[in-house]
Design a protein that fits this description.
Structural class: alpha+beta
CATH architecture of the largest domain: Sandwich
CATH class of the largest domain: Mainly Beta
Order of helices and strands: EEEEEEHEEEEEEHEEHHHEHHHHHHHH
Largest sheet: 7 strands, antiparallel
Strand content: 15-25%
Helix content: 25-40%
Number of strands: 15
Shape: globular
Pathway: Protein modification; protein ubiquitination
Protein name: BTB domain-containing protein
InterPro entries: AtSIBP1-like, BTB/POZ_dom, SKP1/BTB/POZ_sf
Radius of gyration: 24 Å
Domain BTB: 162-221
CATH superfamily of the largest domain: Apoptosis, Tumor Necrosis Factor Receptor Associated Protein 2, Chain A
Organism: Stephania yunnanensis
CATH topology of the largest domain: Apoptosis, Tumor Necrosis Factor Receptor Associated Protein 2, Chain A
């Protein structure tokens, strides 16, 4: 496998670094996987630089062809990067002829091509609505599980035999001690020992809104909707850390790692440091330095450094030394 044809991927970003493209008029990348498909990039030089993105011929691309929504960026390697950015494209991709982007600019020598997948869906050949790849809706439950979840949903929604009140920043909710205790060792400790929560059957959680707390309870009762989870991810992460709900903390980390981009990477890095999320922290540092996206956040980085933890800044500096070694 040639290093010049390898494509690196992280989250929904694929990056192809071209080390040499002088007299050569055509080059194709190795296959890289995003979603359920293997993909290729190719470049061809004529009057323009023509860039193609297409799925590798396979049963998956034939029986479940992708509808992709994506953005392409081309930039020179080195400190003086001036990216050439495509519009947002959305189309059905089957072959190398389905998408070509002519770049009216000269790129030669060392440069790189980024593809950021904003959405991927499976085109159903029977004409039904496309099936989204991200995020999954968690709907594949057995009938017995659906029945159980329906009962738990009623218990929460209709406050059936509730025995604990949760006072949030802007309202109160009813829940069940047994379920909270089974979900969190912190809650269990509250109810086992002679703490005020045991005596009053009340929990004060003033650092969370009622809406976010309802999302937390919906997760614990197994009835949370995907859109509510995504909307309240950061509040859920804080609650999961505070009440030692490991499964929720892991879900939040995986979700935050899944859609890193230039607009949120610094915030994600701060959250990763605050809650000791090693995978998310590594993903953010890789995105910024290995993939060179530090150039995209140069306007925000100064303010970030003003508030960042000193140890985090040292770790970022070490990452710079690792990635930008002298040739």
């Amino acid at each position: 496998m040639s290093g010049d044809s390898r494509v690196d991927t992280i989250s929904r970003l694929a990056q192809w670094r071209i080390e040499s493209f002088g007299p050569c008029s055509y080059k194709r990348s190795d296959a890289f996987k995003v979603g359920i498909w293997n993909w290729h990039l190719s470049i061809e030089k004529n009057r323009y630089l023509y860039i193609r993105l297409f799925p590798e011929p396979s049963r998956a691309s034939k029986d479940q062809p992708p509808i992709a929504r994506f953005v392409l960026r081309v930039s020179n390697l080195g400190a003086n990067r001036r990216p050439y950015i495509s519009p947002i494209h959305e189309r059905l991709l089957r072959t190398s002829e389905d998408f070509v982007w002519p770049v009216d600019s000269t790129f030669h020598g060392r440069f790189m091509i980024d593809v950021e997948f904003l959405d991927l869906r499976i085109c159903q050949l029977n004409g039904a609505d496309p099936i989204p790849i991200w995020p999954t809706d968690g709907s594949m439950q057995s009938l017995s599980s659906q029945s159980t979840l329906g009962c738990l949903s009623r218990m929460l929604g209709e406050a059936i035999h509730t025995d604990i009140t949760i006072n949030t920043a802007d309202g109160s909710l009813q829940a069940h001690k047994a379920l909270l205790a089974a979900s969190s060792p912190v809650f269990q400790s509250m109810f086992l020992h002679d703490l005020k929560e045991k005596e009053s059957s009340t929990i004060e959680i003033s650092d969370i809104s009622m809406e976010s707390c309802m999302a937390l309870l919906s997760y614990l009762y197994g009835t949370i909707k995907q859109e509510d989870f995504w909307k309240h991810r950061l509040a859920l992460l804080a609650a999961a850390n505070k009440y030692d709900i490991t499964s929720l903390k892991d879900c939040c980390e995986e979700s935050l790692l899944e859609d890193i981009n230039s607009g949120n990477v610094l915030e994600r890095l701060q959250e990763a440091w605050l809650y000791q999320l090693e995978k998310l922290k590594k993903g953010c540092l890789t995105y910024l330095f290995d993939f060179g996206k530090i150039y995209d956040v140069r306007d925000e980085i100064t303010n970030f450094f003003r508030h960042a933890d000193r140890d985090l800044m040292m770790e970022m500096f070490q990452e710079v030394l690792t990635v930008w070694k002298p040739a």
